[in-house]
Amino acid sequence: MSNHLNSVLSEPSLANPLAPNLPLPHRKVIRSWLIPMAQGETAKAIMLLVIDAALWLGCIAGTIFVESLLLKIIFGLVAGFVTGRIFILGHDACHQSFTPHRELNKLLGRIAFLPSLTPYSLWDVGHNVVHHGQTNLKGFDFVWAPLSKAEFDALPAWRKPLSAFIAVVGVQFSTTSLKFGGDESTSLMQKTNLVIVQSSLRIIYW
User: Fold this and answer.
1) For the chain, what are the domain ranges?
2) Do the beta carbons of residue 163 and residue 155 sit within 8 Å?
3) pLDDT tens per residue, range 56-101
4) CB atoms closer than 10 angstroms to residue 62
5) Which of 40, 50, 87, 169 would bridge with 99, disulfide CB 3.0–4.6 Å?
6) What is the distance between the alpha carbons of residues 190 and 151, in angstroms, rounded to a whole number?
């Protein structure tokens, strides 16, 4: 009995995941597992923002001052990629998981949202209140809601696999930051790649 309780309450990892036949622990226990992943480091957070901001400014300068059209296109594409990375930093700041300091998160979040021209306070309400308050609920969550079977069946044949793939990418993105194990830089790169893939697919899809 003691071993059973220990296996339920011990923190899971990639090497030792929670067994599927065991009941889920209390939500406070699960929350205690997630707390270490939600506590940011101030120095590392500022360093990430400074590096990405420098990359973004460098790419923008390249698109303006470099005369080669090919290089302008390359700099522009890289600038778009870095804009997505900086937006993710702003996203984490808006969730108060970028640094341990609330007011600093607000300041860094506003700076991180500048390249994508995203208003921090409005996005905070739309994302944290509406999206996370009614996640993926049709008629409430404006970010994304799954299609009903009837809606999916009514899609043209070419859009069905694309719609299914977008749904899978969305679920993968949602679970990436909740993974057990791995380092933060890997998680950030996975998030960046998934955001770019999902955004590109949505542009094609719509």
Assistant:
1) 146-206
2) yes
3) 999 999 999 999 999 999 999 999 999 999 999 999 898 888 888 9
4) 17
5) 40
6) 30
